[in-house]
Write a structure and sequence with these properties.
Layout (H helix, E strand, L loop, with lengths): L1 E2 L6 H8 L27 H7 L4 E11 L2 E10 L11 E7 L5 E7 L11 H15 L7 E15 L2 E14 L5 E6 L5 E8 L1 E2 L4 E2 L7 H5 L2 H4 L3 H26 L2 H5 L2 E11 L2 E6 H9 L13 E9 L2 E10 L2 E12 L2 E11 L6
Parallel strand pairs: 12-17
Antiparallel strand pairs: 1-2, 2-3, 3-4, 4-5, 5-9, 6-7, 7-8, 8-9, 10-11, 12-13, 14-15, 15-16, 16-17
């Protein structure tokens, strides 16, 4: 287990987060809802963040293995926390490092389980609806093992608090591995885990427990991670979040979202074929949103952070961005401002071998 370095793992984090939840799902940022409905669309990072309380920020990114598969853990906590608060309120997700497939996520904080829990039939229907959208491969050959209440104890405001949901446990008959969905009182998905291996004798879980704080506390890699390393990881996570917002704003043609990632005096310079460009941020954003968005044309978002280097209050991010049939390399310089990290300068050109 290790903290992600500047140059490793960001592509997986962004790609993995981008397959989590639906931009078309009705996500109420204050209500923390993810509707497990059959009408949900293709998953995306923005909807996951919309589930979280407004003050939640990324505090930890770790990579390791789950049954031999490289994975990345991304953890969010209230913004007033400096270090990972294991055992406290949080939201976490785990994705495969290569390819970004969702392995699981959990949301454990106040308000998630307020109200009466879903009954058995409603829980089963909600779990199946979620799986049809987010992990349809699990439903090819499966069985429902049981449906029951599930409790987690989380430390909230200094007190142990029980966060509850209705758990639907499944078995994949093709590979004999287990998976489950836990639904909160409002019908949203509180926890999802897949590809869980069970050791019959002695009876215990064999798959690493990346979403379980008690397991994380036992790992030397996390215990040994110094304050400086954790601070660096949090800084990189926040920069990656800004770049990801830039990706999503451009993909959806969202002017306010895209403009919010740039410093007011930012410049965008580069080349589109033989056409040079040198624009202020606002003019660049207006040019982007004047065209039909990639999302509206049914495109798949293909925008990836290739590397990141942070020096004090500046950062340089190299990204690969596909727009239609064109592939570009972006060099983004970000500055840490009073409002947070913002893009101060963007240079771009066509990737070698890609015609524009």
């Amino acid at each position: 287990m290790q903290l992600l370095s500047n140059r490793k793992g960001w592509a997986a984090v962004v790609a993995g987060l981008s397959i989590l939840l639906s931009p078309s799902a009705e996500a109420d940022r204050k209500g923390n809802q993810m509707l497990a409905s059959a009408t949900a669309g293709t998953p995306s990072t923005e909807a996951f963040r919309d589930l979280l309380p407004q003050d939640y920020v990324a505090v930890l990114t770790l990579e390791g293995e789950m049954d031999g598969t490289p994975v990345v853990l991304h953890r969010y906590q209230p913004g007033d926390t400096v270090d990972p608060n294991l055992g406290g309120a949080h939201a976490s997700l785990v994705v495969e490092r290569d390819g970004g497939r969702l392995k699981g996520f959990t949301r454990l904080y106040a308000g998630v389980s307020d109200g009466a829990l879903p009954q058995e039939d409603a829980a089963r229907d909600g779990a199946l609806a979620f799986l049809r959208q987010q992990a349809p491969d699990l439903l090819t050959d499966h069985e429902v093992l049981w449906v029951d209440r599930h409790d987690e104890v989380v430390r909230i405001a200094g007190h142990d608090t029980t966060v509850s949901g209705t758990k639907v446990k499944f078995r994949n008959l093709a590979d004999r591995l287990y998976f489950w969905v836990i639904l909160a009182a409002d019908g949203s998905v509180m926890t999802f885990e897949r590809d869980i291996r069970w050791i019959t004798f002695p009876g215990r879980r064999g798959t690493e427990k990346w979403l379980h704080d008690a397991w994380l506390q036992e790992q030397d890699g996390l215990a040994a991670a110094g304050t400086e390393a954790r601070t660096e990881a949090r800084t990189e996570a926040r920069i990656a979040t800004v770049v990801e917002e830039y990706f999503l704003g451009a993909f959806h043609g969202d002017r306010a979202r895209l403009l919010g990632t740039f410093d007011s005096d930012a410049r965008v310079v580069g080349f589109f074929g033989d056409e040079p460009m040198d624009l202020g941020a606002e003019a660049f954003v207006d040019r982007v949103v004047s065209q039909p968005s990639q999302a509206s044309q049914g495109a798949i978002m293909d925008k990836t952070i290739l590397s990141m280097e942070v020096v004090g209050r500046i950062a340089l991010v190299k990204a690969r961005v596909r727009v239609g049939g064109h592939v570009f390399i972006d060099l983004l310089t970000l500055h840490r401002t009073a409002e947070g990290w913002r893009i101060r300068h963007k240079s771009f050109d066509v990737e070698p071998g890609s015609a524009a």
